[in-house]
Amino acid sequence: MKDLFGKAILDYQTNNSPEDLITETSISEADEMSVAYLFRDFKEMPKLEQKALQLAKGKVLDVGCGAGSHALYLQEKGFDVTAIDISENAIKACELRGLKNCKVSDVLDLDPDTSTALSKTNQNNNKFDTILLLMNGTGIFGKMNNIPKFLQKLKSLLNEGGQILIDSSDLIYMYDQDEDGAYEVPANGYYGELTFTIQYKGENEDTFDWLYLDYNTLQNAAIANGLECDLILEGEHFDYLAKLTHL
Question: For residue 183, what is the DSSP state?
């Protein structure tokens, strides 16, 4: 990966002539996205994200932190928050923004029992009370068959009584309906399995998988992996926030 998404974030943070990102999926045409949106403060965030931050408790892990806006808000509120992202450029930007504890890492590579804890406090425990996966947090799962390994990993990183706060959208509305009202979704696979392409400053990122999950599918997957799933809030565009906890 060329890390173009992270490059855009770092360009914006360092005033290095940032440009809009061009995003395109397997079911939608190219669309422009302002990098400034990733630097929004709390009052500019969608209600789902605001609600997730309001529900945060204890020691927090922000997975796929991007520009770090969620983690920074919690840090300013006094939380012990750790932010991770696979993008080196994004983590550089987070550090420049003043995020104290951020790291280039894939959540699947985190070891809950490691002696080298991510958090700068509680050095013997790499588990968390709140794990955030926001801005379509299910996206990092990539494909349906990856869901169990991600949910099992996230569950292993939770302290007793901990919570996973994750958002996504039901993309069924993007498909046409036949005369009987049935949605014309692909015959093979799940309709929320997309491929994503990003373009920035004339460069194209390698195409990657990205998963949108309807709530019922997430709930069924959670239960199958030993997690309770509660619907916390529904947005205006088929989006929702869910809370996953130990059964």
Answer: B
